[in-house]
Structure formats: structure tokens, C-alpha cells
Amino acid sequence: MRHAFTVLAACAAFAAAAPAQAADYVIDATHTTVFFEISHFGASINRARFDKKEGTVQFDPAAKTGKVNIKIDAASISSGVPPFDKHLKSADLFDVEKYPSITFAADQFTFDGDKVKEVKGQLTLKGKTHPVTLAARQFTCYPNQMVKREVCGGDFETTIDRTLFDLGYGPEQMAGKQVHVVVSVEAVRQ
């Protein structure tokens, strides 16, 4: 019995230490959050998130390559304040009736050793597409015991100029041009 436990523990330790292999992954929406924050008159920070998102990741840590495709339901924006959400969804800002989706497509991964450092791609918002680099604050792959599969994920951040995406509502002193975006993502190997 003791020998069986030792072998089982050694196998579990090996699995945890084994590097991720080239594979396809699907975004786990329950462990993925996309939110942004923007200055409000320089006094406070307004924050909101998008509750509905989906996507896929192709990741090969040995070759240090990958691809990401994320689609966000623009109408799922939530600040926790219904009147503000209504304004965010209006034609003044995200215009969700005309532009129901926000997408991010990337195919350039930069590594620092074995860890993902950056993901470079194209953000499409309100029909405008511009390059965006998501910098990794942390990243790892691990054997998830609940789903019995490998999961890879991390926290990424960037800052965008909202006026490039036709989100220029209001004077700059009311809301700054710079929007801080944070993407916390986990994806399950298929």
C-alpha cells in the first residue's frame, strides 16, 4: 500500500512538472474576466467588465508559438450601475446594437524563458482594428484536477487610446483617453 502511494505521488509530481505540449485550448468563461478602467475627472476610476466571452487558443510552449481568438459580447458590459451600463451600450460609446462583438486575434507570442511574456495581436472594436500588445503579469499551465485536463492561463494587461476606436465621448478632462484593460484568462486543453 505504501509503495503504491509513493508511485502515485511520484506520477502526480511528474505530471505537475511536465511542460505543456502543443495543443488546442478553449477559453473557460468561468475563469476568464475582461475588464477596463478609466479615469473620471482625475478623481476616481470607473471600472466595468464584459460578462460574456468565448474563444480558442493554440499554444506550443516548445516552439514558443501560439494563436489566440477571443470574442466578447459587447452588450454584456457591466459596471454594476444599470444607468451607466445603458449609457455605455448606447451609440455615444460602445454602440452595441451596431457593433455587437469585440474581438482580439493574436499570433505573436513573446517568451521570457519558458513563460509567456507578451501576446501581440489585433483588437477590433466598433469596426476599428488596431494593434494591441497584452503584457503578461503572470502565466502558467497546470493539471486541473476538476476537469482532468491541462489548463493554461494568466493575467494580461494593456493600455489603449479609446479615441482610436471611436470611443471619444466627452471632453478629455471628464474621461481620459487612456483605458487600462485587464484580461484574466484560463483555457482548457482539448
Automatic annotation (TrEMBL):
Coiled-coil residues: none
Q: Please indicate if the UniProt record lists Signal as a keyword.
A: yes
Q: Which Pfam families match?
A: YceI (PF04264)
TM segments? none
**Top-level taxon in the UniProt lineage:** Bacteria
Stretches assigned to the Lipid/polyisoprenoid-binding YceI-like domain: 24-188
Q: Which N-terminal stretch is annotated as signal sequence?
A: 1-22
Keywords recorded for this protein, A-Z: Signal
Q: Does the keyword rRNA processing apply?
A: no
What PANTHER family has UniProt attached to this entry?
PERIPLASMIC PROTEIN, PROTEIN YCEI
Identification of the protein by name:
YceI family protein
